[in-house]
Amino acid sequence: MIAYSPSTLTVADLLRGDLQLASPPNAYFLLKKIVEDPNKTAKDAAVVLEADAALAVKLLKIVNSAFYGFPSQISSITKAITMIGTRELQNLVLGTLIVERFSDLPGQHFSIHDFWARNLRCALIARELDIHFGKHYADTAFLCGLVHNIGQLVFYRRIPVLAREVDLLLQSQTPLAVDEEVTVEQNVIGFDHFQAGAELCKQWMLPDVIVESIRLHCFPDLIGPYADLAAMVRLANCLSRIENPYDAHAVNALNLTPEQISFILDKISASSKSFLNCSIPLSKPAWVLIIIGISVA
Fold first, then answer.
1. Which CATH code is given to the segment(s) 11-292?
2. SS (H, E, C) 212-246
3. Which residue, 149, 219, 241, 274, is the most exposed by fewest CB within 10 angstroms?
């Protein structure tokens, strides 16, 4: 937590002086480097992951969960890579590392469980929208949907008093306009959580597609290389929050009919029910670690 003056606070101030926020997820980049090297194998990738015993254990727990549904237990990282593929593994590692960075948030005013549940729904919708439009982004659409609100976690980690003030103001405003959350954040803090999240991901040197999908959330770009993905995540965010009113602008940006949207939401609803009916004990933070590993057929 930092001392702050809301009138002078900047995103740079927010991210300064916190080792967990300042340090990029190195295991992800080591893995990415190996995956992109044609001379490297799954065994080389396994060596990187097994160097972090805690991460390796978590990855195996996720891969062996009911969400993947493999018929027998997978006992090695090399086998896990063979079963789920390197692209899926990269997203799984990055998602797990991001969740870990915020696993110790104070819980009296903020439910990390509810946060990831809401963003999981957004991720599933984003992935389904990408499938509808030709699957140009594969599982990256899922990951972008999952982390697009990461700036909210930065607020609760670094400026919890202001974050709580934003929450109280939002709770007092019913019904809530689609863009009201961003407006309240800008009024109280000086910037919004999408700006904070994009800057954090940029500081972590994450792929541009992730940074831009967050940065463009409130500033739609019709011609940029990631404009279509940002539009999908924007709509997914709207549709994932049941309490929000219909956002015609977000829907019209993708030229979807009400019937198409209903079809996509029905598929997501069916998938969500199967996850909720899972018999695995979903404790914190194991619940979110398992959620990160979902692969939707």
1. 1.10.3210.10
2. HHHHCCCCCCCCCCCHHHHHHHHHHHHHHCCCCCC
3. 219
The residue-averaged pLDDT of 188-209 equals 93
Look up residue 174 and give its amino acid: T
Assess whether pLDDT exceeds 80 at residue 60. yes
**Percent of the chain residues past pLDDT 90, beyond the cut:** 16
d(CA 47, CA 266): 41
**What gap in Å lies between CA 148 and CA 160, rounded to an integer?**
19
Q: What is the spatial distance between Cα 128 and Cα 74, in angstroms, rounded to a whole number?
A: 28
Can you tell me the mean pLDDT for 277-294?
45
**How much of the chain is helix, strand and coil, in % rounded to 5?**
65, 0, 35
> What is the spatial distance between Cα 153 and Cα 102, in angstroms, rounded to a whole number?
7
Distance between CA atoms of residues 190 and 19, nearest Å: 23
Averaged pLDDT, 238-258: 68
d(CA 278, CA 257): 33
pLDDT at 265: 81
With a cut of 60, say whether residue 279 has pLDDT above it. no
3-class secondary-structure state, position 15: helix
Average pLDDT over residues 162-179: 80
Q: Among all chains, which residue has been given the structure tokens 């974050």? A: 163
Domain residue ranges in the chain: 11-292
- Please report, as a single letter, which amino acid is at residue 278: C
